[in-house]
């Protein structure tokens, strides 16, 4: 199953819009929903992305696949998987803090986000300065 660019953009826009509408209703105190319920559109979207990523990574297990051809591509997919898990950890910690399930300091809640941003900056720097150009 392949989605066109327009379908991916529409799906991203739809889930973002739904999340923002639910967030505004919660912040205006119009809806007394749980914070975990507010983040459901984000988690559904992330689950779709994770399943697609895992299916692509599992494609390397097919017979006849030459592992030398996609080693750089696999490193990028592993980074995407780690980034998605860090984002998930941040969202879960944020919801737990906002719902007062934990008394964790806010600085600890943001550690997965900071690691994600640092990793993104390192990958950007690597792609700009160290990638060979033929």
Automatic annotation (TrEMBL):
Transmembrane segments: 36-58, 78-100, 106-129
Domain of life: Eukaryota
Originating organism: Regulus satrapa (Golden-crowned kinglet)
Record InterPro entries: TM_Fragile-X-F-assoc (IPR019396)
Keyword list, A-Z: Membrane, Transmembrane, Transmembrane helix
Listed name of the protein: TMM60 protein
């Amino acid at each position: 199953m392949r989605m066109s660019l327009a379908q991916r953009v529409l799906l991203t826009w739809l889930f973002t819009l739904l999340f923002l509408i639910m967030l505004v209703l919660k912040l205006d105190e119009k809806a007394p929903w749980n914070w975990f319920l507010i983040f459901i559109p984000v988690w559904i979207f992330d689950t779709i992305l994770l399943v697609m990523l895992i299916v692509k990574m599992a494609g390397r297990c097919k017979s006849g696949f030459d592992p030398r051809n996609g080693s750089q591509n696999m490193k990028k997919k592993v980074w995407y998987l780690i980034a998605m898990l860090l984002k998930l950890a941040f969202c879960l910690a944020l919801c737990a803090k906002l719902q007062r399930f934990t008394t964790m300091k806010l600085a600890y809640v943001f550690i997965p986000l900071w690691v994600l941003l640092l990793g993104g900056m390192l990958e950007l720097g690597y792609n700009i300065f160290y990638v060979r150009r033929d």
